[in-house]
Structures are given as C-alpha cells and as structure tokens.
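Researcher: Here's a chain I'd like modeled. Treat it as a single chain, no partners, no ligands.
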Amino acid sequence: MRHIAIIGSGPAGYYTAEAAIKQWGDDIRVDVFDRLPVPYGLIRTGVAPDHQTIKAVSRRYEKTALTDNVRFVGNIAIGQDISLADLQALYDAVIIATGAPHDRDLGIPGADLPGVIGSAAFVGWYNGHPNFADLNPDLSGRRAVVIGNGNVALDIARILSKTRREFEGSDITAHALDAIEGSKLDEIVILGRRGPHQIAMTPKELGELGELERAAPVVDPDDLPAVTDDDPLEPGQRKSVQWLRQFAANRVEKPLRISFDFFARPVSIVGKTRVEGVEVERTKITDGKLVGTGEFYMVPCHLVISAIGYRSAPIPGVPFDEKAGRFASDDGRIAVSPETGGLYAVGWARRGPTGTIGTNKPDGFAIIAKLAEDIARGAIGPEGKAGRPGFDALAAERKLDIVTFRDWQKIEEAEVAAARSGAPREKFTLVEEMIRAGR
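Model: Modeled as a single isolated chain. Structure tokens:
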C-alpha cells in the first residue's frame, strides 16, 4: 500500500487525488490536507459568486472525496500543526497543491496606504474567506480604480457594479451584498499598462459587462488598433477585442461607468492618510516592448484594488522561486529520495497562476505519472510507511482538531439551510462557526 499526502484541497489537489486512484486503484491511500475546515479552495473562495456553473465542478471533487481511498483532512495548517518533515516521514509522497493565495506586490510608492487592497483580499471578502471577512472596504467614494487587465479585474468590476436583484442565484456573502448595495460609486476605472491586444480577458467575462442593469462599459475608440490588426490574434483573443470595439462603438449611458484605461501604467498611489488618487504614466508599445511616454496624469479615487496576479506561499525548507512566485521544481518534481520519498508541486504551486480550473486536471495526472515513474525506478523507497494510521496517531498525540469530509457535509447543509431567498447558501465566515456546524 502506498500513501500520498496532498497539501491543498482545491482543483489541483482533487484532480491529483483522482489521478492517483486511477493509477493505483485500491492500492493507494490519499490524504488531502487543508488549513481551512472546508474544501475546494479556489472554487469556494476565488471563483466569482455569480458564476455558479463554474462552481458546480466541485461535485466532481466530491465524488473523489467520498471514495474510501481519499480522505479530507481539514483544519490542519502545515508548518504549524504539523511540519513538512512529519508528512515526509509518514507518506511515500507529498504533493504541494496550495495554489497561489497571495497577491503579487504592486511595487509602487503609496501601495501601503489605507484604501489600497489586493484582489486576493477583496475577492476573499465577497466570497466569505475567513481571513478577509472583516475587510470592510470603503465604498463611500465616487470612483474606484482596479489595476489589471485580466479576468479577476473584470470580476471585481462586475461584482461592484451589480444590483441586489442581479445577485439572485449567487452565493455572495450577506455582508458584501449589503455593502455593495450601499455603494456610492459612479465610476470604476480598469487600468492596464498595455493595450487591447494584450489583455488576458476572455470573451464571456467581457460580454457580461454589456448586460449589467445599472453599469455600462466605456472604451476610448482611440485606444483601439486598426481592425485589420486583429487578424493575427487567436480566435478567443480576437473575440475579446471585438467586445471592446462594440463597447467603443455603442456608448450607453447608465448611472455607473466601467471605464477601460489602456496604455496606462500606475507609478504611484497618492494620498496623505489614505488613497486620494493614482498617478499614471501613458505608455506605448514599440517593437513589441512597453515603453513610457513621459506623459503623466492623475486618476482621483477613493479605493484601489490591485489585480495584477498571485503568488504561492513559501513553505519552510522547500525551494521557492521568488521572482515567479511559485515553488522551484523540475516540471513538478522538487525532490525525490528513498529516505524522504517524493516531494512534488502541482497546479498554480507548480506553474504559477495561469490557465483555467480545467488546466489542473492534466497537470494532476502528469504529476501522478511522474510519481509512478519514480516508484518504478526505485527512486522512492519500498512500501511500508505509516501513512494515514501514522498521521492519526500523531494527530491524537498533538490533540489536533481534524475536520473530515463528513463534517464538511454537515457544514454545507447548515450553509444551505441559512441561505437567503434565491441564494444557494450563506457561507460561514468564521472558522469557529464552521467547526461548530460540522460537529
């Protein structure tokens, strides 16, 4: 019998667990660890609450989680409750699937002013992540600036723009719903250093901006390249740019504007005691490279949300690529030895925050293939590690309060029962509440 520990219960973690079952069948035991008492990671706290069809993929993970081979071990912080060395002593392989839960540093003066929020925190706030439930962003100003040209920036702009009625069917938390309903915003500016051809926004998410009740997207026609320049683009990218062209051509007046400001590089956040504006340099692309023009201007605002990407959280003793914000590995292999077993990274922890949720499936299967190869060539020692029973003994000795998948199902039942009319659930935002519900 082989034993695997997976750190992280998001898409990468469960796709990897699924792959392990398909590789070894009944000859494998997989423990999936998470620091929170609830599973699914990004699906629960990262995917926009109004994108319930995407969240439905969790039912696939549930099928894997309910097999006898796989166990969810929630409310366990690696490095605090138990060390990586402990896991390596108990399991044949440890696979890091922690994702990229932290924001990339904005890296400009004033980024630490009150009123500047990272997208991980802001998205966590409206999705009910316990770390950010009490964020309480100030929505009393007239203008917010979102820095970034990816889907996360679009999600934030869309969520801030919706009416209460438009959130029907979503699982946005009650505290966020009330705050957004009371918002005084009449403009959200999306700042991007590059132009329309360089955006990382998908057509579906862009198209949603044109369907909002009280908000309308605004694009300056002068920011758009010639139509013939769209020809070399990939089909999806071309469709995204076509949406921008449509927004520029069909200007619709609504109470709230979502203004795209392209070729705009933030150089500093300005304010005395809190954010008062963003200083921006106009840019251009010359020979494929982004260069500043020396033209500067100010975008007054009361709130800045940075959505420029994410990075993984380092684990002591594990090689980490600081520049890339992910674990350093040889295509997923971090270290392999007969004594300590195999140490691997998968998903965003391996490749950085790129790709879709589905991208984690082939990634998970590829890592399990590497693990199987390492076992076959003798790079990992023979069977005989304590695995799950060994962890349970250690947990009992340390009096760790483990939350199982059955406990999670009780938490989920309680969240569904507490849902407001038209919502699928009302999430618990305190770990203590989750644990009580699970018991």
